[in-house]
Write a structure and sequence with these properties.
Blueprint lengths: L9 H4 L4 E5 L25 H10 L4 E5 L2 H4 L4 H9 L4 E5 L7 H9 L2 E6 L1 H4 L8 H9 L3 E4 L5 H11 L3 E4 L14 H8 L6 E5 L17 H10 L4 E3 L14 H11 L3 H16 L5
Helix pairs in contact: 8-9
Length: 286
């Protein structure tokens, strides 16, 4: 069996980096809610302190923490606790009800929250039909609408997202329908969103839509096409640590190597790993 050659890890360790999609799950310090649909356990969990050690091990200066629907739902105590514990290294994306007020959003922003997560891949599109006013409040506050879709969902959802006027963050390459290829309706809708100038795509989550084991050769065309359409000024990288519900073994270092394979040009890779997230979220050198 021929193995895909990956770039050396050592040069990546010294490069400035921001991880733009990861979770902190700490049920010992922040108990899960009674009504949550999924309760992560074992190696799916990780405290803020442990994640800081992971970041230090790989030379990652900052991370954008995403409040997980799993375990916590719209309870953001763990997220906010992690941001505070990070002492400037973390910012966050919260999970909120559609009726979250401007005052609530402003309070969260003062604590390091830069946007709100919308997850049609989990809840379906219809769940977000009433979320337009929340998206517009986020736009007024210059905060992000972060959206995780799958398959062809973006084909139906993109008009509402673009009409909101908000800055948009798209998770995990839009999790395209692999069988449809680059011409799938959802992926083509995502590519057209590059024209808005306010949509950023996370080059991440390959295991979520690949049908192969690492290094997920069957999906490489998608992030490369996104980089071509959006440019490195509208693309960021993310690990998705600690790999909730992963059906395959994943590790932080090989995922960094895979990003270097996807983005071989050193200048473009520096933009994706550092310049673009620093500009978008306001991270500064540690």
């Amino acid at each position: 069996m021929t193995r895909t050659a990956l770039p050396e890890l050592a040069p990546l360790l010294g490069a400035a980096k921001v991880d733009c999609h990861c979770h902190v799950l700490d049920p010992e310090a922040f108990a899960y809610g009674q009504g949550v649909g999924y309760r992560p356990a074992g190696q799916e969990t990780g405290s803020a302190d442990y994640f800081l050690r992971v970041l230090d091990a790989y030379g990652v200066q900052h991370a954008l923490l995403v409040g997980p629907n799993s375990g916590y739902g719209s309870d953001n105590r763990c997220l906010l606790g992690a941001i505070a514990a990070g002492a400037g290294r973390f910012l966050g994306i919260a999970v909120l009800a559609h009726d979250a007020s401007t005052d609530m959003l402003q309070e969260l922003r003062s604590q390091g929250v830069v946007g709100v997560a919308f997850n049609p891949a989990l809840h379906g599109i219809d769940y977000y039909r009433a979320a337009g006013p929340l998206m517009r409040r986020l736009a007024e506050l210059d905060m992000f609408v972060q959206v995780q879709v799958e398959g062809e969902q973006m084909h139906r959802l993109s008009p509402m997202l673009l009409d909101s006027g908000a800055k948009l963050l798209v998770d995990h390459c839009g999790r395209p329908e692999l069988s449809s290829g680059l011409a799938g309706a959802g992926f083509e809708a995502l590519l057209r969103m590059a024209e808005s100038g306010r949509t950023t795509v996370k080059l991440s989550g390959f295991a979520k839509f690949s049908q192969q084991d690492f290094p997920f050769d069957d999906v490489h065309a998608f992030p490369r096409r996104l980089l071509q359409a959006f440019g490195p000024a509208q693309c960021v990288w993310a690990s998705d640590w600690p790999f909730l519900k992963a059906c395959r073994r994943l590790d932080y270092g090989p995922l960094l190597q895979l990003l270097a394979l996807m983005v071989p040009d050193a200048q473009e890779r520096h933009q994706v790993l550092w310049d673009t997230p620093s500009r978008l979220f306001g991270f500064t050198p540690s």
